[in-house]
Amino acid sequence: MAATRSNADPGLFGPDSVTWQAHGDPMMWIAGIRALYLQALHPRAVRGVTQNSDFRRDAWGRLMRTAGFVGTTTYGTTEDAERAGARVRKIHRLLGATDPDTGERYGVDEPALLMWVHCAEIGSYLHVLRRSGYPLTDAHADRYLAEHRHSARLVGLDPATVPADRTALAAYFARTRPELDAGPEAHEVDDFLRDPPVPAPLVPARALLWRRVAHLAYDSLPPYAHELYGRPAPPPDTVTRRLRLTGAALRGIPARLRWQLPPRHILGAMARLGPATRPGPHRLGR
Fold it and tell me: InterPro entries under this entry (predicted)?
């Protein structure tokens, strides 16, 4: 068990959770982009984004807000996590989207839409981490999915309905597959992720870094997603090798240096709970 300060709140998951260890890994950024690609394949869900936000002009802000929510719910106090969830639920209650074919108006907080967004996100985190070499056993993976019934509750889902192991998650994706399609909004997200607008001084960085990251995230998608988007991926072995090489390179950067980047939730949690709660695979299995 991780030694924590007795008077400190460990938060929603706590230092002994798989979530606490895994979410400190730098491959989470690639996993997050994969989640966006996958989420965009649900026509009703992606309209909630394209019709209610200016993601084209505020890409970095959107990514940072998502990272902030994940960081807060993982490493913040219980009160911080509950407050972040309440904000998300309030925003979702106020937003709706319109089906352009039928004119139907619907809320973005429909349970089916929240479930898709949740499963695509958590499933992407788990997939990329494991495929890139992060040491998660099958038992760890099931624990991770079970833990995220907490995050599902925060966004408005009934935890009892949320897939809590790999078998249930695979069954969910199989059931939902017929509802997916790469409509105009999905291709808009695809075009954006491949070539996001950036200030002129950052154009070289976009070419050297962002496109490689976005391509790797896309390549790691399941075969049905490649089929829907209409762009092939390299052979699976090639993708796995690239994910492992990227994971090894990013994990080679000292954690203390990586954690200095915003939003710095990990450093805040270690300051609150003690240095022994430092996340990483060294604690898995204890």
Answer: MPAB/Lcp_cat_dom
